[in-house]
Amino acid sequence: MEVLKIATAGSVDDGKSTLIGRLLYDTKSLTTDKLEAIEKTSKQKGYDYLDFSLATDGLVAEREQGITIDVAHIYFATKTKSYIIADTPGHVEYTRNMVTGASTSQAAIILIDARKGVIEQTNRHFFINNLLRVKEVVVAINKMDLVDFSEERYNEIKADFEQLMAKRDYEEQKITFIPVSALKGDNVVHKSENTPWYEGETLLEHLEGLDMAAVSNVGTPRFPVQYVVRPKTEEFHDFRGFAGKVYGGELSVGDEMVALPSQTRSKIKDIYFYDKKYETASRRSSVTITLEDEINVSRGDMLVKVDDLPTMEKQFTATISWMDSQQLSSGSKYIVQHGVNKVLAKVETIHHKINPDYSGIDENANDLGMNDIAQVTFKLNKPIFYDKFKEHRTNGSFILIDTQSNNTVGAGFIS
Amino acid sequence: MKDTSHINPLENEAIYIFREVAAQFEKPVLLFSGGKDSITLVRLAQKAFWPAKIPFPLMHIDTGHNFPETIEFRDRLVKELGLELIVRNVQDSIDAGKVKEESGKYSSRNSLQTTTLLDAIEEFKFDACIGGARRDEEKARAKERIFSVRDDFGLWDEKNQRPELFDMLNGQIELGQNVRVFPISNWTELDVWSYIEKEGIEIPSIYFAHKRKVFLRDGLIWSHSDYVFQEEDEEVLERMVRFRTVGDMSCTAAVFSEATDIESVVQEIRDSTISERGARIDDKRSEAAMEKRKQQGYF
């Protein structure tokens, strides 16, 4: 089974929820009772069309204000794939939700209102998808019905967006433009008769055709140890299994490994998934590994191949996305959670803020507020074993935890 | 077999979450209702820790109005797997005067479970409660985190939730707080049923079509039972039905069905145009019913 996670980004009123509702409706994923609820509420509000946004806006406050204020997850499936959409709000103040949604996604849909074209918000949405290295981006130029399905307007917007693309620092990112009307259903699931000049795929056709291996970020294999399995039963008296998820690449029986931080070497003896043995642990599978030798490995340690070591340092510089109302300032201490490993960290230097719309940097950055993005150097109390985010999406990212509130207050991408 | 690439990504994710719970918390518990989602959780937990035993107990908050088939099944499963089971009863909370039994046509003990649950969490000092809720079930649940922090009063602050990035789960809490954990957050109803079919997991018989005494009200099929209030003019019928979701008898409606085995149940779910919670009487109370219950600590 294939699962594709998609993040959506669009400004208020770009019709994001309507687009998702349309995808659900045209793939017949909306059940009768949900549809009835939508019909009933649409009628109550006096609309002469179905308000599909009601299918996704979950919280009471959102229904009252007609906006999306938090990441909601929406599910639908076709014969080819299961889709998980992280519906993230588009307001300026909710950068943190967009970063969050993009972090778990392999693809993103950026919505543009065909009447408004590329606006400042679009820059932000694209910037975040660049920063998070989302490999597959679909630019859905929406509300085409309101510009008479004009090819000229579509090309104008496309050209504006291509100017933005020149500014990104992620060449491998694939970008596809699709003219749609979410409200009327043009080119979402069904090909539109209103855009004869458009020869590309519909949104769903495009998503269906995505090769999962190609949209995934591949790097070198990393095995952070989550949990040590020690059954201590008669049958498995000496069993010491290292449970974890394989990231980046694959690991096979016989591979020569080194455990970090101890730097002890051993070979992979067996790879288990539940009670079955396998030759190879594929990328992103949750396996249990046993080693030939009895070496000391515990949670937070990492097993890597001997010829493929990550950086092991007590200091790093990263781009961080700040997500808390309390400011981050120089000298303050946080917990860095890097995968399953936690270390204490001190803010050494805030180098500069990065405007999340490609408009440059702000050198005078003493402290960071909610939704700020900045270049920061941290000092750690113990070394971590990392790769650059550009080279390894998992082993190059971390979250920051406040030592007082225990809240997740930021996310970082190691430079 | 050669490699593990065929394994369902959702299964890999759930196993990862279970291991995070065992590693990050001191006293986790798996909330077990005897329904298909919690049975699926048990299988996933087995896989996460094999060949070791599941390193935490199961707990059932019993309304006393359960389907007898579910309770029988629960006891058998626990015995077969050698697990520890804790049962706490809503009846005890009623007897102690902590909650008041609802009365009338739509009375149910479903929402009373919250008090019993919060008391049990305090009694055992559980710091993580694992549940089978899924985001596709209901709109408020679509916003739920995988690790969802509850304060000392068991309350959910839906506007102030921790962001969850990449695979990283932040389980740091203060004493007195606890975390609700949802390993199958990203599964749909069909994903659960397909998994049960593929794994050959045994589930209580009421999930398959059987003859049952029922009555019809508000377009839903209600069980005829001592626990369910029934008007005199609501006629008792005997029909072939099955349950898609199993909770308290007073809040779970049946569907007409001829599906007597897992293959035909999966087929029915595929073809169905009604959502799973469409048969949950408790959700019909108002559009925001689930959100309100969740804020108060409901699972």
Automatic annotation (TrEMBL), chain A:
GO molecular function, one term: ATP binding
Database matches in Pfam families: GTP-eEF1A_C, GTP_EFTU
Enzyme class label: transferase
Gene3D superfamilies: P-loop containing nucleotide triphosphate hydrolases, Translation factors
PROSITE patterns in the record: G_TR_1, G_TR_2
Presence of keyword Coiled coil: no
Source organism, top-level taxon: Bacteria
Coiled coil ranges: none
Every Tr-type G domain range: 1-218
Keywords, in A-Z order: ATP-binding, GTP-binding, Nucleotide-binding, Nucleotidyltransferase, Transferase
This protein's name: sulfate adenylyltransferase
Native source species: Maribacter algarum (ex Zhang et al. 2020)
UniProtKB/TrEMBL annotation, chain B:
InterPro entries: PAPS_reduct_dom, Rossmann-like_a/b/a_fold, SO4_adenylTrfase_ssu, Sulfate_adenylyltrnsfr_sub2
One GO MF term attached to the UniProt entry: ATP binding
GO biological process: sulfate assimilation
Keyword ATP-binding found: yes
Keywords noted in UniProt: ATP-binding, Nucleotide-binding, Nucleotidyltransferase, Transferase
Phosphoadenosine phosphosulphate reductase domain location: 28-253
Class of this enzyme: transferase
EC number: 2.7.7.4
NCBIfam families: CysD, PRK05253.1
Family, as annotated: Belongs to the PAPS reductase family. CysD subfamily.
Name the record gives this protein: Sulfate adenylyltransferase subunit 2
Organism, as annotated: Maribacter algarum (ex Zhang et al. 2020)
